[in-house]
Amino acid sequence: MPRRACLALLAAGLLAAALPAQAGPADRFRTLQDSLDLRVRLSSVTTAYPHALPAQAGNIELTARRLSGTLLEPGQSFSFLQRLGPFTTRRGYREGRTFMGNRIATSIGGGVCQVAGTLYDAVLLAHLKVLERHPHTLLVPYLPPGLDATVSEQGGKDLRFRNSTAQPVLIRAHAADHRLTIALYGRITGPAVSLHHQVLEWYPTRTQRLPDPVLPRGTERVAAPGQAGCRVRVWAAVRTARGESVRPLGIDTYQPSPRIVQVGTGPPSAPPPAPPD
């Protein structure tokens, strides 16, 4: 698409509709990047997901494909739920791990929060304006405390931000081989931003021993390993030609998750049969 035509469509708010419907995320990204000359990388964040089961990994990769090629005009806002939801089986999502209070459970779309958290960090590093963000109830394995983001359609928790720059911002997202990378592109380099966190207090895990009539008496099984929680302070250091400033990002609290041990109360296991004479 010629750049002049692309700019005219962008100004009219019609650029996304003008792209071919069959264009994949890579084609969509390259078309917009070339047409609008958005070649300056404003930020890039990579997280790993070796912890994800195949269905959860699939949710991450599907969400990344749908996110890639998203263009934000100057002043335009982005809503994770509106842009990428709903997370249903009809739209290709499957069950993955999620947090329910201080426990690990499963839900349709489990894993999309890793995309939200990775995007959140990329947005902070690009110095865009965050409008809404929520932490998980438990610590996540792929980002430092205080730098994650959860989304929930039922709970009304969204990740929202605004392109607070004077240039278009283009999002590239790619997930494969258990690595997710999200990068933001523009035309002009912004301020240098670094993210920092300080754990103010740790909350130790505790052990819950629950009777299990299925397990033979005298046996035990660890059903959940548990993990500590914490309270953490987070801030961004922003460096420009005029000097460095600190932007507080708040204080988050994460619950500890209990270590659950199932204690057998069922009949003892039958002894093995005696060997034949």
Would you kindly provide a written description of the structure presented here, covering whatever features stand out?
The protein is 21% helix and 39% strand. The protein is of the alpha+beta class and 277 residues long. The strands form 5 sheets. A 4-stranded antiparallel β-sheet has the order 1-9-8-2, with helices on both faces. Strand 4 and strand 5 form a beta hairpin. The longest helix has 14 residues.
Q: Average pLDDT across residues?
A: 89
What number of structural domains do the residues give? Answer: 2
Beta-strand segment tally: 15
* Class per helix and strand makeup: alpha+beta
- Tell me the Rg in angstroms: 23 Å
- Strand arrangement within the widest β-sheet reads 1-9-8-2
Give the overall shape, derived from the CA principal axes. elongated
Number of helices: 6
Low-confidence stretches: none
Tell me the β content: 35-45%
Q: What does the largest sheet look like?
A: 4 strands, antiparallel
- First-last Cα distance: 86 Å
Measured as a percent range, the helix fraction is 10-25%
- Helix and strand succession? HHHEHEEHEEHEEEEEEEEEE
Oligomer: single chain
